[in-house]
Amino acid sequence: KKIGEHGNGFLYYVCRNGITGVKTDLPADYEENMKRIRSVSNKAIVTGFGIGDRPVARAAITHADGIVVGSAFVKAIAAGASATDLKNLAIKIDPR
């Protein structure tokens, strides 16, 4: 609640404990936690940590105002992805 009151812009919800990396689903408590955050703040909520494919992105965006995809891009860059490869990855993950 205090972060929402004093912060600017949006809230970033790290939706899972542990280390980041592409996951195949959201945590079981994701929807409930998003509701709890919305009940104490009117700021936009952006979520991330484990979002790396379209199905997970679509599930996350149903409750969030935005998503962060990091690990999938870091992995692609480490493998030598080109700018075009990264653009295609973004299109592949896009939840729309």
Distance between the termini: 30 Å
Rg from C-alpha positions? 14 Å
Shape from CA axes? elongated
What do the pLDDT scores average to? 89
Order of helices and strands: HEHEHEHH
Share in helix: 40-55%
SS field, number of helical segments: 5
Major sheet attributes: 3 strands, parallel
Oligomer: single chain
The strand line-up of the biggest sheet is 1-2-3
Low-confidence stretches: none
Q: What class would the helix/strand composition place it in?
A: alpha/beta
The percent range for strand residues is 5-15%
Number of strands: 3
Describe this structure in words.
- With 96 residues, the protein is an alpha/beta fold.
- The protein has 5 helices and 3 strands.
- The chain has a 3-stranded parallel sheet with strand order 1-2-3, with helices on one face.
- Helix 4 (71-78) packs antiparallel against helix 5 (83-93).
- It is elongated and about 40 Å long.
List the helices and strands and how they pair.
Blueprint: H1 2-6, E1 10-14, H2 30-40, E2 44-48, H3 54-61, E3 66-68, H4 71-78, H5 83-93
Parallel strand pairs: 1-2, 2-3
Helix pairs in contact: 4-5
Short summary of the structure?
With 96 residues, this protein is α/β, with parallel strands linked by helices.
List descriptors.
elongated, 3-stranded parallel beta sheet, alpha/beta, 96 residues, 14% strand, 45% helix
